[in-house]
Amino acid sequence: MGSKYLLAFAFLVLAFFPDSSRSAIPRWLGEQKMRGSVIRMKTGGSSAAIDPTRVTQLSWRPRAFLYKGFLSNEECDHLMDMARDKLEKSMVADNESGKSIASEVRTSSGMFLGKAQDEVVAEIEARIAAWTFLPAENGESIQILHYEHGQKYEPHYDYFHDKANQELGGHRVATVLMYLSNVEKGGETVFPNAEGKLTQPKSDDLSDCAKNGYSVKPMKGDALLFFSLHLNATTDTSSLHGSCPVIEGEKWSATKWIHVRSFDKLTRNSVDGECKDDNVNCPMWARAGECQKNPVYMVGSEDSYGSCRKSCKVCSS
C-alpha cells in the first residue's frame, strides 16, 4: 500500500476520536487484519473487508470521501430488486414538528429496508460501520431511492433543526450515499457551499445544476461519505447538498444516515434525566480536557444532550 494511502487512513482514524491512543478505539471495532491493500475489520459479530486504496478525499469543507466500487454489481441489483414494488413518494422532515411530510423539494420515490433484512444487507451495513468507524447501531435503516426524469432533491442539510428528531440518536453526523445505477445525464450529488466548488474542473457531461457547486457523478457501485458535523460536533453549513434533476435515464441510490448516538434506543439523558455517560471513554476524555475543548459533544447545548455529562460534572447522580 502506498504511503499516501496509509497517511490518509491514519488521518481518518484520528478524525473520529479525541484521543488516538489504543484505549480510545471503541470496543465494538474489534481487531483489524491487513493483507495487501484490504483491511478486514471485526464489527460486532461480523467481519467486513474494506480497501482504503479505493478511497479518495474529495473535500475537507465539508469532509467528503468517495469509495470506488464499494458495492458489487450484484449487491446493487439486489437492493434495487428488493425495492421495486415497494416504492412510495419520498418525504422530508418538517423543521417545526419533526414529522415526515410531503414536499416538492423532494420528488423521488423510496422505501426503507429492515436492518440486517438479509445477509446482503447485513454485510453492507457491517462494511459501512467498518469504513466510517461509526457503530452500526448508530445508523438508520438503509433507504432506497429512485429518481425518474426531472426528479430531484433540492439542496438541504442532513442534520436536524428540531429537537424532536434529535431525541433519537442526536444529530446525523455522517451520510453514506451509495449509487446503485449509472445515470446517462444529470442526477449528480452537488454541494453548493463546498470549499472546492470553484476549483473543481467542470466537464461537459455535467448538468447545469452540478456546475453550481462541488459535484459527484453517480457511478454504479460507488459510495460517497460526507459529514454534517464538524469534529467539535457543531453543525457544518458547508455540508449543504442536493440531488440534481435526472435529465436522461434513471437514478437509483441507497442512503445510510448515521447519528452521533445509538438510533436503536432513546438517549438516556433525554428520557429519564439520569446523570450518566454515553461512552466508556468519557472519563479519559474528560481528564484530557475535552469538556472544555469539545463542549457540544461532551456537555451538550440547547439543541442536543451531551454524551459525557457525568464525567464533565455538569449533573449529579
From TrEMBL:
Predominantly, its location class is: endoplasmic reticulum
PROSITE patterns linked: FE2OG_OXY, SHKT
Q: Which UniProt keywords apply?
A: Dioxygenase, Endoplasmic reticulum, Glycoprotein, Iron, Membrane, Metal-binding, Oxidoreductase, Signal, Signal-anchor, Transmembrane, Transmembrane helix
**Pfam families the UniProt entry points to:** 2OG-FeII_Oxy_3
Query: Taking every annotated instance into account, which residue ranges of this chain make up the domain ShKT?
Result: 275-315
| Compartments it resides in | Endoplasmic reticulum membrane
Tell me the enzyme class: oxidoreductase
- List cellular component terms (GO): endoplasmic reticulum membrane
Cofactor list? L-ascorbate
Q: Which domain of life is it from?
A: Eukaryota
The stretch of residues making up the signal peptide is 1-23
InterPro entries hit by this protein: Oxoglu/Fe-dep_dioxygenase_dom (IPR005123), P4HA-like (IPR045054), Pro_4_hyd_alph (IPR006620), Pro_4_hyd_alph_FE2OG_OXY (IPR044862), ShKT_dom (IPR003582)
**Catalysis performed (reactions):** L-prolyl-[collagen] + 2-oxoglutarate + O2 = trans-4-hydroxy-L-prolyl-[collagen] + succinate + CO2
Q: Under which EC number(s) is this enzyme classified?
A: 1.14.11.2
The residue ranges of the Fe2OG dioxygenase domain are: 138-260
Membrane topology is: Single-pass type II membrane protein
A single GO molecular function, which one? Answer: procollagen-proline 4-dioxygenase activity
Q: Family assignment?
A: Belongs to the P4HA family.
Q: What is this protein called?
A: procollagen-proline 4-dioxygenase
| Organism for this UniProt entry | Eucalyptus globulus
